[in-house]
């Protein structure tokens, strides 16, 4: 009986142990540590984060503010995703040296390519500074004053708190402003491109496979951090030397099995896990469908042109992928929120919360929260919808409108800051716009405009649509704007921008595109944005109190702070899933699947000849298993955008994979994490090494790594011998 009870308890524990969460690495003692050990972790939390000795965190730098990377050699070699290194790879590419298509490999350090504007940031230490940040706000009554004081405190603490001269202090807010943490960081600015597979491997499956399992993408690229001769951050210089890390990740060739422990360490960008049901309802029923419909139309137009014209395909490939990424995510998110009954579940949790408030005698403090949410979300609805239409139609997806909006900002700048500011911005614009017009095709954009302006007029809240657009003939308007505006052509734009401010503004005011954008933007900046901001500030303040209440009243719950681009630990296990009736997904894919998807010459599913040859010869070296080459796997780790490139780490602290995506049915995990269907997608580290070694022949890089085989207890030297053995 007693042991049965224990078993049951253990079962419950294990089920709970899969509930997701993104945890602060310096606060893992207690509940997290117990859970991780239960899941099979063999390390201590000190091995993950420590200020006194080197730990995993010393091997996990933020990659250029948006992705994650990990150090894998004593010479500062780092690994991240192909899509994270994409810009750098593209910048070095030309028709002659097309690294995107063919890949790039530096077989000697001298061949590594420096990158402007590419940096990685390490965390030196993390400290709770809540009390210091909140000093002096108790006596203030208005929300605006409190926020102002907090910002002042943050600014002065960032200056005064101790750090070395080459380091930075960054203070970030957690739990909606209930906790503040200091991050002491070191940022390295000499980061060079070392290796990238061809896009047919690194981006295999492209948009069709994006957010989807089963997946077969070798989404990785390699860079190296360079430091000055004291091993400190320095701007690019020939004299710089490879950075010597405090820690680098050994790489395990053991591979993964279902239910194995995994830990993903990285910089998740943004989540909203504590939204009230009413907010999720708005996302599911109004905001997501509106944004999806706008992008749906834009994508269809672009796709039509891209399929017919190769030059347009090149011009629009990256823009298309950018629009498609979140379009696809919102569709998956909306479906997932519905399917998992997120709204109903939240409503139940809210009812339970309300009971707890009453039981705790906290009605005065927390009793009205949910009603206030209800009121404020109702009030913000038309502003939020109108704002999303403005952002999606004007700022994001109609290129002519977004470039014209820059001119609108130029006029605002003149009004607010005067002639000098105007001239500076004007010069910047003229120079910067060359890039934009290089990939701009007026014929494509005209068709996008025709579709999107129609949606804007018909579907966005009437009261914020300029009067002149009521009953307008869309076709005539489109022809007039694209026929008359100087902004469809770089040469005409430069001409339009010549002269003093008065002349330029005069010319702009006679431009059809400008007239239109000015009307739309005036409506937005005067009637939508201020009201939206005002209500949104109230909502943020409610959200802060709601969070505080949950921390107080739901102590036993797994309250983790929403993602905020700071370093987090998430853990779980390797696990398949069942997204719908009669459909079971296994957690692993193999090279066989790449060949199954192979479409010769296709822009998404082509396969390089050499990879096919290796496959046919089953020439997998020491990286294959039982005659098969593993490619990707999935797990229950709770990740989001920003976790791209994050290391997937095994129970002992070895690298086993590289995070790069989530599965379609689980993309709602930013709002509601359902352990049954939320999975992160990782590329198997053995596939990465196989491509580096057998496909690219980059032995120089493989030789830098510390490759281990803990389960088979094969020494690193023996592994090296095996590698060079004739096969
Ligand atoms: N969905 C992944 C992420 O959110 C990968 C995006 C890059 N790949 C693409 N096909 N657009 O970043
Ligand atoms: N691809 C995403 C990124 O760039 C990671 C996938 C996700 O959103 O979970 O960070």
Provide a concise account of the structure shown.
By secondary structure, the chain is of the alpha+beta class. It has two domains: 354 residues, Thrombin, subunit H, CATH 2.40.10.120; 275 residues, no CATH class. Helix 10 runs antiparallel to helix 11 and helix 14 packs across helix 15.
Please supply descriptive tags for the structure shown above:
seven-stranded antiparallel sheet, 26 helices, alpha+beta, 23 strands, 2 domains, binds glutamic acid, binds arginine
Bound molecules: arginine, glutamic acid
Helix content: 40-55%
- Mean of residue pLDDT? 95
The major sheet is characterized as:
7 strands, antiparallel
The level 1 CATH classification of the largest domain is Mainly Beta
- Total strands: the figure is 23
CATH-defined architecture of the largest domain: Beta Barrel
What does this structure look like?
This protein has 727 residues and is α+β, with helices and mostly antiparallel strands. It folds into two domains: 1-119 and 189-265 and 570-727, Thrombin, subunit H (Beta Barrel), CATH 2.40.10.120; 277-551, no CATH class. Helix content is 48%, strand content 14%. The chain has 26 helices and 23 strands. The strands form five sheets. Strands 3, 4, 5, 6, 10, 11 and 12 form a seven-stranded antiparallel β-sheet that branches. A hairpin with a 3-residue loop joins strand 1 and strand 2 (67-68). Helix 10 packs parallel to helix 14, helix 14 (369-397) crosses helix 15 (399-417) and helix 14 runs antiparallel to helix 21 (512-553). The longest helix is centred in the C-terminal third of the chain and has 42 residues, at 512-553. The chain is globular and about 75 Å long. Mean pLDDT is 95; it is low at 12-17. Arginine binds next to helix 9 and helix 11.
């Amino acid at each position: 009986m007693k042991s049965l009870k224990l078993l049951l308890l253990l079962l419950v524990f294990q089920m709970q142990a899969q509930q997701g969460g993104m945890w602060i690495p310096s606060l893992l003692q207690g509940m997290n540590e117990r859970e991780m050990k239960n899941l099979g972790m063999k390390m201590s939390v000190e091995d993950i984060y420590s200020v006194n000795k080197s730990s995993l965190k010393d091997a996990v730098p933020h990659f250029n503010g948006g992705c994650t990377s990990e150090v894998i050699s004593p010479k500062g070699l780092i690994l991240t995703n192909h899509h994270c290194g994409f810009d750098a790879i593209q910048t070095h590419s030309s028709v002659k040296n097309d690294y995107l298509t063919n890949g790039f490999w530096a077989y000697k350090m001298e061949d590594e390519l420096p990158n402007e504007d590419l940096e990685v940031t390490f965390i030196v230490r993390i400290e709770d500074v809540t009390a210091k940040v909140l000093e002096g706000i108790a006596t203030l009554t208005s929300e605006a004053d409190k926020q102002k004081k907090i910002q002042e405190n943050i600014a002065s603490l960032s200056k005064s708190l101790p750090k070395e001269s080459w380091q930075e202090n960054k203070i970030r807010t957690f739990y909606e402003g209930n906790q503040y943490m200091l991050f002491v960081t070191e940022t390295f600015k000499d980061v060079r491109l070392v290796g990238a597979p061809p896009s047919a491997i690194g981006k295999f499956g492209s948009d069709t496979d994006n957010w989807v399992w089963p997946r077969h993408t070798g989404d990785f690229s390699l860079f190296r951090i360079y430091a000055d001769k004291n091993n400190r951050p320095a701007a690019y210089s020939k004299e710089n030397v490879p950075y010597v890390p405090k820690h680098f990740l050994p790489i395990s060739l053991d591979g993964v099995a279902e239910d194995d422990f995994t830990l993903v360490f990285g910089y998740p960008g943004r989540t909203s896990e504590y939204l009230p049901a009413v907010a999720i309802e708005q996302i599911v029923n109004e905001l997501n469908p509106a944004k999806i419909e706008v992008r749906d139309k834009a994508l269809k137009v672009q796709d039509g042109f891209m399929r017919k014209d190769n030059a347009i395909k090149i011009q629009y490939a990256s823009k298309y992928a950018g629009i498609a990424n979140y379009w696809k995510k919102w569709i998956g998110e909306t479906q997932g929120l519905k399917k998992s009954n997120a709204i109903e579940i939240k409503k139940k949790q809210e009812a339970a919360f309300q009971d707890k408030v009453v039981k705790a005698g906290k009605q005065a403090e927390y009793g009205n929260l949910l009603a206030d949410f209800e009121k404020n979300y109702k009030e913000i609805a038309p502003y939020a919808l109108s704002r999303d239409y403005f952002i999606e139609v004007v700022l994001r997806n109609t290129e002519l409108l977004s470039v014209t909006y820059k001119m609108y900002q130029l006029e605002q700048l003149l009004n607010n800051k005067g002639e000098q500011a105007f001239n500076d911005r004007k010069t910047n614009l003229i120079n910067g716009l060359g890039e934009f017009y290089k990939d701009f095709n007026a014929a494509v954009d005209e068709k996008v405009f025709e579709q999107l302006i129609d949606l804007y007029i018909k579907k966005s809240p009437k009261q914020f649509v300029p009067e002149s657009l009521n009953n307008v003939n869309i076709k005539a308007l489109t022809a007039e704007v694209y026929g008359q505006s100087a902004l469809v052509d770089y040469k005409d734009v430069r001409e339009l921008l010549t002269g003093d401010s008065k002349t330029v503004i005069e010319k702009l005011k006679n431009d059809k595109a400008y007239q239109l954008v000015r009307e739309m933007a005036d409506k937005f900046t005067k009637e939508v944005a201020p009201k939206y901001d005002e209500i949104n500030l109230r909502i943020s303040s409610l959200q802060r109190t709601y969070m505080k209440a949950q921390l107080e009243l739901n102590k036993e719950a797994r309250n983790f702070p929403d993602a905020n681009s700071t370093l987090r630990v998430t853990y779980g296990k390797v696990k398949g899933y069942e997204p719908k009736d009669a459909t079971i997904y296994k957690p692993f894919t193999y090279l066989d699947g790449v060949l199954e998807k192979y479409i010769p010459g296709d822009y998404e599913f082509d396969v390089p000849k050499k990879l096919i040859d290796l496959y046919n010869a089953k020439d997998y070296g020491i990286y294959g298993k039982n005659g098969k080459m593993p490619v990707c796997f999935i797990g229950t780790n709770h990740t989001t955008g920003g976790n791209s490139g994050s290391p997937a780490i095994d129970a002992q602290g070895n690298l086993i994979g590289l995070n790069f995506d989530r599965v379609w049915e689980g993309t709602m995990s930013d709002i509601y994490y359902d352990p049954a269907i939320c999975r992160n997608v990782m590329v198997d580290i053995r596939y990465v090494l196989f491509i580096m070694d057998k496909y690219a022949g980059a032995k120089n890089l493989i030789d830098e790594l510390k490759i281990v085989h803990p389960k088979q207890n094969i020494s690193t030297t023996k592994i090296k011998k095996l590698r060079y053995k004739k096969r």
